[in-house]
Amino acid sequence: MGMTGEGFPAVTTRRDAVVAWGQKNSLWPMPFGTACCAIEFMGVAASVFDISRFGAELVRFSPRQADLLLVAGTVTFKQAPILRQIYEQMCEPKWVISMGVCASAGGFYNNYCTVQGIDQVVPWTSIFPAVRPGPKPSWRRS
Amino acid sequence: MKNEEILEKLKQKHPQAVLGAADRFGYLEIQIAGASIAEVVKTLRDDPEFAFNMLIDLVSIDYSATQGWTGERFALAYLFKSLTLGHRLQLKVTVAEDEPVVPTISEFYANANWLEREAYDQMGVRFARHPNLKRLLNHHEFVGHPLRKDYPITKRQWLSANESLMDEMDVRLKAKGYQ
Predict the structure, then answer these.
(1) Helix (H, G, I), strand (E, B) or coil at B153
(2) A81/B138 Cβ within 8 A
(3) Could you tell me if the ipTM is greater than 0.85?
């Protein structure tokens, strides 16, 4: 970006840069809530923590309109193909947050039916490894 | 009715089916021959003195890891309650390992349909004449029965594609008169 210097109020830039800037600052999240971490996502979106400060208040329940997949909760093997399909339906660029230790590594569900980390199903970019992490880690850079 | 009266009356009605009884901390348990479970349950539901109109739970048990156990490997516990008369009852059926088949009671209690599917899925007990004996909790590509004591608890099985479930949808649409 650059300002023109002759007193004419205009900004020059490239269209790609504007689009990328918009995408970066208005992530539309889609919650894939399967357990108690989905309750914490309500705290993230509600007024006290207020995800709209980051331009992400528009929660989409269609993967085709969302940029950010929030996997909040335990994912079973029966659900793994569903999660994969939802991830593939999202348009590029897309990001995944694995919220809580159950989604990140299976948590204490070390058993026959729980996927031991959704990185085996979809590539995640950010994790909050805690049991019911609460809204606060959503603000931290990780 | 009191526990003793329930036992006496059931013995009169089905003398061959009742194999024994026990008092579990005030909860009456009656052992029933597996082949006659369906007619016993029908009596318990329809007889106005029993009036067991609620099936609380159906539990499958694997005794293979129990110390000093000499009986059959599997057992089923049927828990009943009468909402009108207030009494409770537990039926116990032993199930052999080489032929784990028990008649279904899903025609008498609607919730028995899924409870029996769960017992089949997790423990491998089959129910004769069940209308839809498919896995309930595990996916359809799962091999084995995970609540059996000889199943390794961390043996995980991936699913390649979900079921469409349209076969079950067709049955329900037909039942509701849409097809």
Answers:
(1) coil
(2) no
(3) no
